[in-house]
Specification:
heterodimer, A: 352 residues, alpha/beta, six-stranded mixed β-sheet, four-stranded antiparallel β-sheet, 15 helices, 14 strands, 38% helix, disordered C terminus, B: 341 residues, mainly alpha, 0% strand
Chain lengths: 352, 341
């Protein structure tokens, strides 16, 4: 049973001097363009409801201007919502005083930034130890804790370098180490890897997944890259023009897109690599197993590995196992069908 | 009979205008009377106070305006003096004290100290050697005492400017309203002709007090350090402020760990400008008894002693180059955010 760490309830955000007065227009259905045209206010978030589960990676994905960076800044109240509740373990953050929210930021959530935002005049060691020294911890203890995490992200030997002496990938490792040193249950990552080149990005994504396996943090990850989102996400939220288009388990969204916008999105990805056996298998209903099964597969195998295993033969069927227990069967014909997007998006949405 | 006579009678003010004291004042009137006719100017003169006064003696003359300012100032003087005198007295002590220290330290101790300071600040051998050579060169033509006097004044005034200027700049960067209200004042201080500073100060304090020139120099030189502190802090990228907020820094931590270090290059540029401007003002302050190289420049102008003026002028240039190089080298050394060449 998973626990809800943060829940967002009816969050609205309008940028502009009269946001409170204009709220009811938006609640009555006024859209982003109309609000801009009539009142010159920007509608950034429109009725956001998300439950963020503890110890899972929740990815918020959307194109630029969809409000995703605004959304993540609501979680630690770097941006105040126009309306709505942000509950952290049942406590509403929006009513906290300046002092209390500072304490929450120090002890509950750390953040990794797209442009790293490392202090250029401090060494890697001091940058990484910053979250602790802010809390008033003695310098020696900060340094000791910081060295531990610098080691963990693979930057040993760079403690006394300055950020400008490091490459982008290394700087973001420092950023991740800084967030980890804060030792907070929640980590906010705002397009953390978007500024890195593809190979380094893959490296640091793997590092994050590896660390996550061990540390079990509640991570809220913002990205505009669907491949990245699918690689990292336990739970995926897709944002468009400030509202949630669809949210759920990534596999589920991939198989059942509920909006042309998402179909358009998912049509471009390599489905064989992303989809897993559990999303397309036939669940074990009446307990009957096919007698001509060609072997056993794991529920979390990707379709790519299945194609490899079957040698491309579509007549095969397999027994699906989940940790030793038989949970279903997989027909290779089903698999081939699943590789084609449900709607050929080229012919529908892109023309509109 | 000008247009304004008709104007006043048209407005029905003729009676009001005819005041009892019909004393003849202007020389023009006198000569006109001697010639036996009324003074007659152009039909439509520029509407100035003096011209209006000719048509209506109730209107004050321009001379009364300047007199009024003077009288107002004199009336306020006792109050201003009782308030400002004690506040600014420490300035006199500091200037006199620094002067005494710089003058009474023997040269063979003072010069190594100055070279050591420039080495400590800049860590640059060429700058330190340049400082040693320049001071010895000035001493060689018997300008050592004047150089030390000028240096002591610049030292005190720059220190005070930084001590007050940086906090004012920080306060300005925090409040848009304060910035809006202070900027015109800073513009005024920077554009006011330097001699004009001296006029009210001469009224307030006696010319023998050293704080007189101290205040003039500080008022002039404090502007760049305020401006560049404000600008430097405002130019700090928002991503750093956001990161500081995200990790729960309070205002003081944000200032000391993020804003000031990142604004330091700009603040140091302001300090450099402040040093240069106080050096420029030292020369003008010699008009109100500030000692130093400026006195010799003044002597060169007053007595047309060309050589004296030029030697003192070159001395000031050398001092300026020393102070500029040392402060810039110091800035480059402490700025860790950039690669060094």
């Amino acid at each position: 049973m998973t626990q809800t760490m943060v829940s967002l309830r009816g969050i609205y955000k309008i940028f502009g001097p009269n946001d409170k007065e204009l709220l009811h227009h938006v609640q009555n259905g006024m859209g982003k363009e109309e609000l801009m045209e009539k009142y010159k206010h920007i509608l950034a978030l429109n009725n956001i409801n998300i439950d963020i589960e503890a110890e899972k990676i929740t990815v918020v994905m959307g194109l630029s201007g969809s409000g995703k960076s605004t959304l993540i800044r609501h979680l630690n109240r770097l941006i105040e919502p126009t309306e709505g509740e942000i509950c952290l373990l049942g406590e509403d953050l929006t009513v906290l005083s300046e002092v209390d929210i500072r304490k929450t930021r120090q002890e509950m959530m750390s953040m990794v930034f797209q442009k790293f935002a490392l202090l250029p005049h401090e060494t890697v060691l001091k940058n990484v130890g910053m979250p602790l020294s802010v809390r008033g911890m003695a310098e020696d203890d900060c340094d000791k804790e910081a060295s531990k995490w610098i080691d963990r992200v693979g930057l040993i030997g760079y403690e006394n370098s300055y950020p400008w002496q490091l490459s982008g990938g290394m700087q973001q490792r420092v950023g991740v180490a800084r967030a980890l040193t804060a030792n907070t249950p929640i980590m906010l990552m705002d397009e953390a890897f978007s500024a890195l080149d593809p190979l380094i990005r893959t490296d640091i994504q793997d590092l994050l997944l590896e660390l996550q396996k061990e540390l079990q943090k509640t991570i809220i990850f913002i990205t505009h890259d669907l491949d990245e989102a699918l690689k990292l996400a336990d739970y995926l939220v897709i944002l468009k023009d400030g509202y949630v288009v669809q949210q759920g388990e990534p596999q589920h969204i991939l198989m059942n897109p509920n909006d042309p916008y998402i179909e358009d999105f998912v049509s471009d990805i390599n489905r064989a690599r992303v989809l897993r056996v559990r999303s397309i298998m036939t669940p074990l209903g009446d307990g009957k197993l096919p007698l001509d099964a060609h072997g056993e597969v794991d529920v979390n195998d990707t379709l790519e590995s299945m194609i490899e295993q079957s040698g491309g033969d579509t007549s095969h069927t397999y027994v699906v196992k989940d940790g030793g227990k038989t949970v279903g069967t997989l027909d290779m014909n089903e698999l081939v069908r699943a590789l084609v997007p449900r709607v050929a998006s080229e012919t529908t949405t892109r023309q509109s | 009979m000008t247009l304004y006579d008709k104007l006043f009678s048209f407005l029905g003010l003729s009676d009001w205008c005819k005041s009892e004291n019909k004393a003849i004042i202007s020389l023009k009137d006198l000569s006109a009377q001697a010639a036996g006719k009324e003074a007659s100017g152009p039909f439509f003169p520029i509407p100035s106070l003096d011209n209006l006064n000719e048509s209506c003696s109730r209107v004050i003359k321009s001379r009364d305006v300047t007199n009024g300012i003077e009288e107002g100032f004199l009336a306020a003087k006792p109050v201003l003096k009782t308030v400002l005198d004690p506040i600014t007295q420490p300035l006199s002590w500091m200037l006199d004290g620094a002067l005494w220290v710089f003058e009474s330290t023997p040269w063979f101790i003072m010069v190594p100290i100055l070279v050591a300071i420039s080495w400590y600040a800049s860590h640059s051998r060429s700058v330190s050697i340049f400082v040693a050579i320049s001071i010895m060169l000035l001493a060689f033509v018997d300008h050592y005492d004047e150089t030390m006097q000028t240096l002591s004044i610049v030292f005190v005034c720059t220190t005070i400017s930084v001590v007050f200027g940086v906090p004012i700049g920080i306060a300005m960067s925090n409040s848009d309203r304060l910035q809006r209200s202070l900027l015109p004042l800073l513009d005024l201080l920077q554009t006011l002709p330097t001699f004009v500073y001296l006029i009210p100060l001469i009224f307030l304090f006696s010319v023998t007090e050293s704080k007189l020139y101290g205040i003039a120099i500080i008022l002039y030189a404090i502007v760049p350090v305020i401006r560049l502190t404000d600008l430097g802090i405002r130019l700090v990228d928002y991503e750093f402020i956001e990161a500081a907020n995200a990790f729960g820094m309070n205002d003081r931590q944000k200032l000391t760990r993020v804003k000031l270090p990142l604004a330091l290059p700009n603040i140091m540029a302001g300090v450099n400008q402040t040093i240069m401007m106080s050096l420029a003002m030292v020369v003008i302050a010699s008009l109100v008894s500030a000692p130093g190289l400026g006195v010799n420049v003044l002597r060169g102008i007053r007595n047309l002693e060309l050589g004296v003026g030029i030697i003192a002028g070159i001395g000031i240039v050398l001092l300026a180059v020393i102070l500029d190089r040392v402060s810039k080298a110091a800035l480059k050394r402490i700025d860790k955010t950039r690669p060094k060449d």
